[in-house]
Amino acid sequence: MAKQGWPRLILYKNPASPPSCAVMILGDILGLTFDYKEPELRKREHKSAEFKKINPMGTIPVLQDDDFIVSESHAIMKYLLNKYGGALQEKLYPSEPRQQAKVDQCLFFEAGVLFPRLKAVALPSFFHGLAGPTSQHLEDIEEAYSVVEAYLNGDRYIAGDRITIADLSLGTTISAAEAILELDKKKYPLSVAWLSRLQEEDCFKEINNPGAALFTKLLHMSWQKNKN
Ligand SMILES: N[C@@H](CCC(=O)N[C@@H](CS)C(=O)NCC(=O)O)C(=O)O
């Protein structure tokens, strides 16, 4: 049931998609109810003319709130917090300039660096016959992991001592990236501890962990198929 007086929210998503999971986790934390729509990625439905009217980028997640449509998980999360966050907005996306800049630093890093490095392996594996990551792919992911380790800097969470939307974004993407390169506990002890802390949260257990397991299964199946 949608919260009383609120329009129904529609989320275009896929359970194995890290940015979709980040938005779903936030929805769960805020007590929002989404009507889910799942374009068939294998059939390239997200690249159809019809879907591109909703999101010209042809990607998921996309949120529809009544007559308003927004794509890009970070923009969606900020919108949901602005509109429906109530007291949780300040916790999950603090307004204090330095704290907010730390959260933004992580969000931009995820959007501009970390996620594209995951996608550089995933898309060619699913659609273009790639049978495993190249050494360059692994080097790129390794470099991104070392940035995450440095960002953690001894804090409990990625942008400070409290969970924020930066943890939802990076936590879901690294959970999936581990299908390509596991976090090495010796090199990235802070990251390993942080990720397992997140994965023990109920909302991660319900949404992220099965999503990451599905992503891992699909990716490894593609590699097997592409090797033959
Ligand atoms: N920066 C975007 C990334 C969205 C994205 O690339 N989503 C993937 C699914 S995880 C997708 O739609 N891929 C299909 C494609 O690019 O063809 C976000 O955070 O929403």
TrEMBL record:
Q: Where does the source fall among the domains of life?
A: Eukaryota
PROSITE patterns to which the protein is assigned, alphabetical? GST_CTER, GST_NTER
GST C-terminal domain mapped to chain residues: 96-228
Please list the residue ranges annotated as the GST N-terminal domain.
7-88
Q: Which SUPFAM superfamilies match?
A: GST C-terminal domain-like (SSF47616), Thioredoxin-like (SSF52833)
For this protein, the record's InterPro entries field holds:
Glutathione-S-Trfase_C-like, Glutathione-S-Trfase_C_sf, Glutathione_S-Trfase, Glutathione_S-Trfase_N, GST_C, Thioredoxin-like_sf
As given in the record, the signal peptide range reads none
Give GO BP annotations, semicolon-separated: glutathione metabolic process
The record ties this protein, via Gene3D superfamilies, to:
1.20.1050.10, Glutaredoxin
User: Which terms in the Gene Ontology molecular function aspect does this entry carry?
Assistant: glutathione transferase activity
Q: Which Pfam families match?
A: GST_C, GST_N
> What quaternary arrangement does the UniProt entry report?
Homodimer.
Q: Which family does it belong to?
A: Belongs to the GST superfamily.
Indicate what this protein is called per its UniProt record.
Jg10509 protein
